Amino acid sequence: MPRVSQDHLQARRRQILDGARSCFARNGYEGATVRRLEEATGLSRGAIFHHFKDKESLFLALAEDDAARMADVVAEQGLVQVMRDLLADRTPGGGSEPEAEWLGTRLEVSRRLRTDAEFRARWAQRSEQLTAATKARLQWQRDGGNLRDDVDVDVLTAYLELVLEGLVSHLAMGLPADDLGPVLDVVEESVRRHRRA
Predict the structure, then answer these.
(1) CA–CA separation, 33 vs 128, rounded Å?
(2) pTM
């Protein structure tokens, strides 16, 4: 039997994650049945669960994938850019999936964090990636003299993460978002160092 290439395995895994993202966004975690996952990915349950132990592992991998994409954007452009990507109706990092699918996954993570202690414990081990990327980006900005120095980096990180959560809630409620670009300008400006003329 011929061996499957690593590229093929990675492409199949990406196909599963992309289909699952859509399925979880449309149906929620409980509603994303194996049958619906098969339809969304175009693959059999055997193919899906060859790559992921179970639905829980698949969802966690999807959430981790989104967090990693966000962390990449943060490392390059900052957390405010992640928020701008959301307002521009695209996934953080310029992915091709609609923002609503990313948002659906993010909201499902938030719900499960609130209601599922086991998931909360598993997620806590992985969620530090975004916080670490934000802190590193802010420290880099401070070292370059571009970040205000009267507030601790940990406080600024928490502030930006709260703004992100507020934006996610705003979008989840279906509130208008066309005029939030200037709001994000204010957020970005609030962490910058202002030099006196």
Answers:
(1) 29
(2) 0.78
